[in-house]
Design goal:
The structure holds 2 protein chains of 2 kinds. By secondary structure, chain A is mainly alpha-helical. Chain A is 66% helix and 0% strand. Chain A is built from 15 helices and no strands. In chain A, helix 8 runs antiparallel to helix 9. By secondary structure, chain B is an all-alpha fold. Chain B has a domain of 143 residues: Four Helix Bundle (Hemerythrin (Met), subunit A), CATH 1.20.120.80. Chain B is 70% helix and 0% strand. Chain B contains 6 helices and no strands. In chain B, 32% of the residues are buried. Classes of the chains: A mainly alpha, B mainly alpha. Chains A and B meet through helix 5, helix 6, helix 7 and helix 15 of A and helix 1 and helix 5 of B.
Chain lengths: 551, 211
């Protein structure tokens, strides 16, 4: 038969690959986009686990002398809640979003070291799993997330739970350092032609400084954890007070890591918010150079404030004064950033879509958290409020109000790019308001219970303290927040299925990632773009009025 | 669909769009070099913490051998000389490779390896002496704790360097290392120089200042 007369079958689409092939692809991937998504998925899972731990804590504290959780279980819960949220939620979600976005923003096809990238993720996940294996020893470590010596010595922490904790953190620390090394090499060498360092998208700049902080701050933690393990298993005396060791040394080492760590958790978020606010105010960022300099200043100063976590251990007055001054100083570049965000919004045409809603939540909450931080930076004030619920209020305002709200802003902004679908604005608004109101109720109230004297890390309290109502309000706030996270997960799944198709540039934005299809192809850019200004897409869309004319 | 293919209005009649200035090329280190550099900075932070801890505990012991009693300079000066020499030999090896002299590269690379192994052997000998003659162990006193941790971590880094150099030696014997792909050798040599530099500091702190 001639070809023209041969019967033709129905049009066949290429078959979807079997799930084993998809799984194999994801497990062996070295593509920065997939690795970024893996990091974010890991973080969301640990966010839920850490959230459940928090709910258990809050339920135990809902009434005086409640016996829902025993004291040791309560201690395990706050240890794991803190460790999980900082190391297995905060860092992975930021490293993940950085991994996804940085190559796209600088016009590169991948990170500098794709295999190291994959290693970093899997090692981070292994660290998280190792820490949770501690439950198999009969209970998680009950040492607090900052594990003050000598509580971590064999004498006091008898089970192997502490060993799993220390080992898990050392292992995930390797992953974090690997990611930082990758970011530094990528950002410094793989930018598109014409993208000088002073023209990078602001998120890229903050990821660079975050990586510098990681490289300086994580190794001291690794060293300290090694010392704990040596004390516990080889009879070393680093923190063994009976044999001349110093409990204070652990605090110095830990907080030398611990303070830059919280800046590691906030700088990428500063970058995200700095990307989003101009787009939703339809105005170019106010004072890019000062914002960039402020970022570098924050990174530097953050290495010199650590002992403001130790005002009550009895350091000399000189030492106290030094750390008061350095702590106050860090508020200056942070304040500059704040004013620049506000100046960007002033006179702009503001759209209150979900990314901007979360940014406004971020601005309001981080402001309060920053202010209580300054209050605590005044040592005499801290003498009264160290280790009270005021402190827990403060750091949750900056960590949830700051990091988490900023991350949600970023997810709502970049989800269309990553998936090709828009998130539901209705679900996002419900999520935002439930989270915002519940958060204020929980952590705002904590400032009051703190000032009224309620200490941290107590598993219960007496009825005659007058804290019962405050604790109930705090717990109520947690119960209000919990559904917001459920809504978020629902939003993600529903939008993946039925979300409005997003197109390449749903927000009319200005950086290079919006010039690729949504989701981007594996190779990111068919042609590596040449860049002339900080807003390459603006230049492309407005060739008559390009940004580089105003440089 | 990239932005470049969307239809945009052409320039108004009689005018043309502004032309951007020429782009000046940037000269910077390679990705591998920045990667190794950042990794080495993290190692500085790691060793720095242990060195500070060592200095924190110097002189605080009430029991056991002090550094002055237990440490002897003779052997350590020899091992230090070996390590410093190995930095010179690795540099020469790099030069040979650059010029395409495979045999020369192999010879000097092997010399570096041997000197590194000699350092480790000397350290092992020294530690044997410290443990059996001076009863200095990691659990003996603060000096033992901090000494073995600091010097031990350094020795571990030397071991890692020697192992990597062995792998490179193997690759070179299979003629897989040439002047064209010498970047990796360069990165290993940076690592080796760093390990050497750390030893200079550790040696000064432990054997000179702390005694």
């Amino acid at each position: 038969m001639a070809i023209a007369e041969a019967p033709r079958g129905p049009i066949t689409r290429p078959e979807a690959p079997p799930w084993t092939a998809v799984l194999h692809d994801w497990v062996t991937t070295v593509d920065h986009k997939k690795i970024g998504i893996l990091y974010v998925l890991m973080a969301v899972v640990f966010l839920v686990v850490g959230g459940v731990e928090a709910l258990l804590l809050r339920w135990q504290l809902v009434r005086p002398r409640y016996d829902f959780l025993g004291p040791d279980t309560f201690n395990q819960m706050f240890t794991m809640h803190g460790t999980t949220m900082v190391f297995f939620m905060g860092i992975p979600i930021l490293v993940g979003m950085g991994n996804y976005l940085v190559p796209l923003m600088i016009g590169a096809r991948d990170m500098a070291f794709p295999r190291l990238n994959a290693l970093g993720f899997w090692v981070t996940l292994l660290g998280g799993l190792l820490v949770y294996f501690s439950f198999a020893t009969g209970g998680a470590p009950a040492i607090g997330w900052f594990a003050y010596a000598p509580l971590t010595e064999r004498t006091f922490a008898r089970s192997a739970a502490t060993d799993f904790w220390a080992l898990g953190l050392m292992v995930s620390g390797v992953g974090t350092i690997a990611a930082a090394v990758n970011f530094i090499a990528t950002i410094l060498t793989m930018r598109a032609p014409g993208m000088a360092l002073r023209k990078v998208p602001f998120f890229v700049w903050t990821m660079l400084w975050t990586s510098v902080l990681i490289v300086f701050a994580i190794p001291p933690l690794t060293a300290g954890l090694a010392m704990v393990l040596l004390d516990r298993h080889l009879g070393a005396h680093f923190f063994d007070v009976q044999n001349g060791g110093s409990a204070l040394l652990w605090q110095h080492i830990f907080w030398f890591f611990g303070h830059p760590e919280v800046y590691i958790l906030i700088l990428p978020v500063f970058g995200m918010v700095t990307e989003i606010i101009p787009v939703f105010a339809r105005k170019v960022l106010f004072g890019y150079e000062f914002m960039a300099a402020a970022t570098a200043a924050i990174a530097f100063i953050s290495l010199g404030v650590w002992a403001h976590h130790m005002f009550t251990v009895g350091m000399s007055r000189t030492a106290d004064l030094f750390f008061i001054v350095s702590t106050f100083m860090i508020s200056i570049p942070t304040g500059i950033k704040f004013f620049n965000w506000l100046a960007t919004m002033y006179g702009g045409r503001i759209s209150f879509a979900s990314p901007m809603l979360f940014c406004i939540g971020f601005l309001s909450m981080f402001l309060i958290g920053g202010l209580t931080g300054i209050m605590l930076g005044a040592a005499p004030f801290d003498f009264q409020l160290q280790d009270t619920y005021f402190l827990i209020g403060h750091f949750h305002f900056v960590l949830i109000g700051g990091t988490l709200f900023g991350v949600f802003a970023g997810i709502h902004y970049w989800f269309p790019k990553m998936t090709g679908r828009m998130l539901s604005e209705r679900l996002a608004r419900w999520q935002f308001w439930l989270l915002y109101v519940g958060f204020l109720l929980t952590f705002g109230t904590m400032h009051i219970s703190g000032v009224l004297g309620m200490p941290r890390r107590i598993y219960t309290y007496d009825a005659d303290r007058g804290w019962a109502l405050l604790n109930q309000l705090t717990t109520l706030g947690a119960i209000i927040q919990a559904p917001s996270f459920v809504l978020f997960v629902c939003n993600v799944f529903a939008s993946l299925r039925n979300g409005r198709p997003a197109g390449a540039d749903p927000w009319d934005a200005w950086t290079l990632e919006w010039s690729t299809p949504s989701p981007p192809p594996a190779y990111n850019f068919a042609v590596i773009p040449t860049v002339h200004s900080r807003r390459p897409l603006w230049d492309l869309k407005h060739p008559d009025d390009p940004d580089w004319q105003y440089d | 669909m990239s932005v470049a293919t969307t239809t945009m209005a052409g320039p108004p009649a009689g005018q043309s769009f502004p032309v951007p200035p020429a782009i000046r090329p940037e000269h910077t280190l390679s990705p591998g070099q920045w990667g190794m550099l950042s990794f080495l900075v993290s190692e500085v932070a790691l060793f720095g913490t242990l060195i500070v801890t060592y200095l924190f505990y110097v002189g605080k012991d009430v029991v056991g051998p002090t550094p002055a009693e237990a440490l002897s300079l003779g052997l350590v000066v020899c091992t230090t000389a070996c390590l410093l020499a190995s930095s010179a030999t690795v540099h020469v090896a790099e030069r040979r490779l650059e010029r395409g002299n495979q045999v020369g590269f192999l010879r000097w690379w092997l010399a570096t390896l041997v000197l590194g192994a000699a350092f480790l052997g000397g350290t092992a000998f020294e530690w044997h002496d410290l443990i059996y003659r001076h009863q200095l162990t990691i659990s003996r006193n603060l000096f033992g704790t901090t000494y073995y941790t600091l010097v031990g971590l350094h020795a571990l880094h030397v071991t890692a360097g020697v192992s990597i150099m062995l792998i490179v030696l193997g690759l070179a014997l299979c003629r897989r290392v040439t002047s064209a792909n010498r970047a990796g050798v360069g990165l290993v040599s940076w690592y080796w120089h760093f390990v050497d530099g750390v030893w200079v500091v550790v040696f000064t702190v432990v054997y000179l200042v702390g005694r």
